[in-house]
Amino acid sequence: MRNRRTLFLFIVIFAALVIVAYLQTRPAPLPPATAAPTPFLERIYPELAVLDIQAIRLENPTTGISFTISRAADGEWTAPDSEGVLDAQAATQIARTIALLPYQRTLELTDDTNLAEFGFEPNAQLFIQVVRVDGSANIVAVGALTASQAAYYALVDEREIIYLIESGPIRFLLNFLQTPPLNLTRQGSGDTLLITPTAET
Prior knowledge:
By secondary structure, the protein is an alpha+beta fold. It is built from three helices and twelve strands, in the order αβββββαβββββαββ. It is about 25% helix and about 30% strand. Strands 1-6-10-9-8-7-2-3-4 form a nine-stranded antiparallel β-sheet, sandwiched between helices. The protein has a three-stranded antiparallel β-sheet with strand order 5-11-12. A hairpin with a 6-residue loop joins β2 (about 55-60) and β3 (about 65-70).
C-alpha cells in the first residue's frame, strides 16, 4: 500500500498550495449549485457540484506533465502555472466532467491485492486532484483500461475499493492534459499558437 500513501501525499501538497493562493485572493462566497446526475450510473462524488471546485490538477506521474486550473477572486477559471489564455468554457467542461465522474462498479481492495495488475504500479497513468472551496481535497488515481476497454481502474481517496470508471470521461481528461485549452497569440499577428505542456523540472 506504499504506492497509495504516495498518492495521497501528492494531494496534500497540492491542496496546501491552492489553499494558500485561495486565502490570498479571498473570493466572495459562491452560491450553492447542484450538478445534474448521470442517468443509470453512480457518481464517484455524488455531492460534488462544479461550483464546489476551487482548483483542479491533472498529472501524468510517469512523465511529470501536469495542468492546473483554479478559480480567481472573481470566480473565473485561470491557469496559474501556464502561459497563454485559458479557454474558460473548456475549463468548465473539465470541472463538470470531474463533478459527474461516473463508475460502473467496484472491486474489493485488500492487503493481498496486486495493484500492478490494475495499472497502479509502478505508476498510475493519471492523477485527478481536486481542492474544494471549503478547503477539503480529493484525488483519483487512474490505472489501466479494463479488458473490454469500457472502463479504467481507479483508486479514490482512501477508500478501500477499486472503481471501474467509465472510459469516456477519462479519455476526455487525458486529452486536455496532452493538449491544454490554452492559446497564445503572437503580437502583431492573428496567428494563434497551440501550447504543448512540458514536464516539470
